[in-house]
Amino acid sequence: MPVAREGECLVRVRTVGVCGSDLDGFLGRSKKRVPPLVLGHEFSGEVAGVGAGVTDLHVGDAVAVYPLIPCSHCVFCQTQRHQICPERKVFGLDFHGGLAEFVAAPRPCLFPLPTGMSQVEGALVEPLANAVHVLSSCPEVKDRTGLIYGAGPIGVFVFLVARHLGARRLAVVDVNASRLEVLEKLGAELIVDASREDPVQRILAWSRGGVDFAIDAVGKTVCRQNCIAAAAAGSTVVWIGLNEDAGEIDGRAIVTREISVRGSYAYGFEDFRRALELLAQKAIPYGVFVSRHTLDEAQAVFEELAGGRSALLKALFAL
Q1: Domains in the chain, please, with CATH?
Q2: What is the pLDDT of residues 79-89, one digit of tens each?
C-alpha cells in the first residue's frame, strides 16, 4: 500500500487505459517494462489521502494524473518542457503504475476534474495530451490538408484534435480495416489501407502534390518514409511513433523540398491541461472508439490488442 509523503496525495485509481507501450511490456519487447513492474500511465481516480503540505485537494476529489514526474529545476522544466527533463520518471515505466488500486502522486501531477467530467474522460486526458502536443509542432493546421499515419488510439486523437483545430481535409493510413472504418465514421476525407494499395501515390493524387502536415503515429521505417514522400514542399512531418529505433530516410527529399521533420514526446503540463479542457467541453467525440472492461478481462484484452488486428481501439479498465 503506497503512502502519501509530504507534497503528495494518495489516489484510488478508478479508470486506466492501455497504451501501445504497455503492450510492448506485455509482449516482453520493452527494456524497462519488465516483471514485476505494474503497468499503466493513463489513469484517473479519487483522492484517498493527503500528505503534509497539500491544502487544495481533499479526500473524494476526482483527479486525472499527469504521469511524468520531472525534476522541476533543470532548464527544460524552467521553460515548460517537463516532458524532456533528463531526470523525469514515469508511472508504469520507472516505478509501479496505474493498473493498481492505489498510487501516491505529487500534487503538481494531479489535475482536478471539473464537475460533470467522468473518470473515463479523466483517463483519456493522457493520450489526448499526446495529440495536443503533436499538433503544436505544426505551424499551421487550420484550413490545411493533413495525413495521419496509423489509426491506433494516438492517431485517432491526432485526427480529432486536427479536426477541432480546423484542418480542411484529413487522410488516414493503416492496415487494420476495422480501425479505418472508425476513422471513416469520424469523417476522414480519405482512408487508405496500406495492405491493399500504395498509400503514397494515393495521397499525392488526392492532395494534388502532397499534404501540408503529416503525423507518423506508428514509428516503423516505412511509415516515416511514406510521411516524407507524401508531404508537400515546405511542409512539416512530426514523428510520435516508436515502433522502430532506426531506419533509412530520404535525406535528399528533406533538404531539396525543405521539409521540417520533428520529434514529439509525450506532453507538457499545458498540453495536459488543454486536453482536459477539450474533454470537459465535450469537444472530442471519443465514444465511437473507446471500450470499457473489468480488470478480470485484462488478460484477454491484452492478448487481443497484442495480436495487432483487433477491432478494439482504445481499451479502458474500470477498477
Answers
A1: 8-129+267-318 (3.90.180.10), 138-263 (3.40.50.720)
A2: 999 999 999 99
